[in-house]
Automatic annotation (TrEMBL):
<dbReference type="InterPro" id="IPR009061">
    <property type="entry name" value="DNA-bd_dom_put_sf"/>
</dbReference>
<dbReference type="InterPro" id="IPR000551">
    <property type="entry name" value="MerR-type_HTH_dom"/>
</dbReference>
<protein>
    <recommendedName>
        <fullName>HTH merR-type domain-containing protein</fullName>
    </recommendedName>
</protein>
<dbReference type="Pfam" id="PF13411">
    <property type="entry name" value="MerR_1"/>
</dbReference>
<feature type="domain" description="HTH merR-type">
    <location>
        <begin position="8"/>
        <end position="71"/>
    </location>
</feature>
<dbReference type="GO" id="GO:0003677">
    <property type="term" value="F:DNA binding"/>
</dbReference>
<dbReference type="GO" id="GO:0006355">
    <property type="term" value="P:regulation of DNA-templated transcription"/>
</dbReference>
Length: 154
């Protein structure tokens, strides 16, 4: 999905649920820079791209979860750069993962550490419920213990 429209700070507030004060703070502290503005500086309207809006929404969710975003600033800036290319906003760019300090971006089958200069990282996701169900299924296919004792006694 490619959205080439630019958005005002007022639209950012409406679309992300952040307050105008928080949007101003995030811009002032350079968590997000207005990528849609050709001219920057005092007196010029800030224009944000769709990728910027996604970055704001990520920040809103992190803040709602009580995450101290200052510790993740570098990773958030790298995320905004990755989202600057509208072709990145596909199903391949699926998950943002964080431990509250490092920020990882899942693209397809790769996991990049955005905090460590986009270094590839390894992660394993194991479905514990599936493991338990496999054991239960395998257990039900085993002969019962009493049947095993009877056949071994013969």
């Amino acid at each position: 999905m490619v959205v080439s429209e630019t958005f005002s700070a007022k639209k950012v507030v409406q679309l992300t649920g952040l307050s105008s004060t928080m949007v101003d703070y995030l811009v002032r502290e350079r968590f997000v820079t207005p990528s849609g503005s050709a001219v920057r500086g005092r007196g010029n309207a800030r224009k944000f791209t769709f990728g910027d809006l996604v970055t704001f929404k990520v920040l809103a969710r992190l803040l709602d979860s009580g995450v101290e975003i200052r510790r993740m600033a570098k990773g958030i800036r790298e995320l905004q750069q990755a989202l600057a290319d509208p072709t990145h906003l596909t199903d391949k760019m699926r998950y943002l993962i964080s431990d509250g300090r490092d920020v990882f971006l899942s693209e397809g089958e790769t996991l990049e550490n955005l905090t460590q200069s986009r270094q590839l990282a390894f992660a394993f996701l194991i479905d514990l419920a599936a493991c338990a169900n496999e054991i239960i299924s395998a257990r039900s296919n085993l002969p019962s213990l009493s049947l095993m004792k009877a056949t071994s006694a013969n």
